[in-house]
Design brief:
It is built from eight helices and seven strands. By secondary structure, the protein is of the alpha/beta class. It has a seven-stranded mixed beta sheet with strand order 3-2-1-4-5-7-6, with helices on both faces. Helix 1 crosses helix 2 and helix 6 packs parallel to helix 8. It is globular. The protein starts with a helix and ends with a strand.
Length: about 230
């Protein structure tokens, strides 16, 4: 059962993507030309997606993978092309509906299923791997740590997820967002002290057997995110 703070934050994010940002995100993930901030975000997300894919074998036959916070599903689709059976879960029913309308044929025996829901729900079952790109960045350190531990309990091999590093530019942007709140702006990114969060996470009793792997930072203008890897021995 998720705590009240997580549920409140989850519902805020769903409201943003379903009621405010869907059209903007459709343009961002499309091939149409964008400019300014959107161009840096698109470039950063493309680079981050490649960095996450680099953490997995090219042959994922036999793997079941959860894409937690899948958005329009590009990462899930690439993993499925490598032979994995991928379940993508996103809070936004409209985003998932848009993604399902454009799903390509999957190569190499893999499969992809995209559904709307809570990425942490135990009903999704168990997985060999978990990816989560730019979903945990909207939760504070405690909520993110709990989410990671919850996913780890149902994952047998590895998890790769992104976090927002606690840097001066991100902290300043967060502060400005709080000073000038707007109902239609993106849910605030929550910068965290990544090393401390993950050090404490792998020391938890329910995280025994997990060790920290490689880290990759992507910085493209307004896009600043770090991919972290946890591996189960």
């Amino acid at each position: 059962m998720q705590d009240a703070a997580y549920i409140k934050r989850r519902d805020e994010i769903q409201t943003y993507f379903d009621r405010t940002a869907l059209d903007a995100w459709k343009r961002l993930i499309s091939t149409e030309k964008v400019s300014g901030i959107r161009a840096t975000v698109r470039a950063g997300r493309d680079a981050m997606r490649s960095a996450i894919l680099d953490r997995f074998p090219h042959d994922l036959t036999g793997w079941r993978i959860l894409d937690a916070g899948c958005g329009a599903g590009p990462l899930a689709i690439e993993l499925a092309h490598r032979g994995a059976d991928v379940l993508g879960v996103d809070l936004s029913p409209q985003m998932v509906s848009h993604a399902n309308e454009a799903l390509p044929a999957i190569r190499n025996g893999g499969s992809v299923t995209l559904i709307a829901g809570d990425m942490l729900a135990v009903e999704h079952g168990e997985f060999d791997g978990v990816v989560s790109m730019d979903a945990l960045i909207h939760y504070n350190a405690l909520e993110a740590a709990e989410a990671i531990a919850g996913l780890a309990r149902r994952t047998s091999r590895k998890m790769v997820f992104t976090l927002a590093p606690r840097t001066r530019p991100l902290v300043m942007m967060q502060a400005v967002g709080k000073l000038f709140p707007r109902g239609d702006r993106s849910p605030t990114i929550q910068p965290v002290a990544i090393d401390r969060l993950l050090t404490q996470a792998v020391q938890r009793n329910d995280m025994q057997g997990w060790t920290r792997g490689a880290s990759t930072r992507i910085s493209r203008g307004f896009y600043i995110s770090v991919a972290e890897e946890l591996v189960r021995s």
